[in-house]
Design brief:
The chain is an alpha+beta fold. 33% of the residues lie in helices and 25% in strands. It has six helices and six strands, in the order ααααααββββββ. A hairpin with a 2-residue loop joins strand 3 and strand 4. Helix 5 crosses helix 6.
Length: 169
Amino acid sequence: MRKLALILCFTMMTAVILSITVPGESAVEGNNQIGASAEAEEMQPDKEEVIRVMNGLEDTLKQDADDSYKLKHYATEQELTEAFEAYVTPELAAAFVDYYFRAEADGVYVIPTQTEPWFQEENEYDMINISNHFVQVVQENENDMVGSYTLVVEMAFQNGWKIQGISYK
């Protein structure tokens, strides 16, 4: 039952993500500043980085929970938000936490929802450079529940590559 709730949680991710709009390119700060010569070149994440970020987001959404849906590994919303921020922008992290989880005095609980189809690392994808620090990862997939779909993931370089937006076609 708990696994079903977690799967349902991931499906609803699409509705939240589609309602979030984050401005295009963001500034790069701190230790990840890029020199003038590197800025002239188009940057994009390599295949390993795309897979790391995609799988990291999926793993963070699919939290281990007890029979009452209380998370086992995060006691506060802040801890959970910080876990998401390893893979998504702060705005998107806050939206995920607000939509999929609720904080109670004794911990954080997952809200059971459906999950949408997601990135399939074994399938090919296209990477489209939008600007020096912004790319779209586009993957066409098929799923028994929804049929054919195209996943479009916007990634921005903000202290590393982060997901900034997700949509489906």
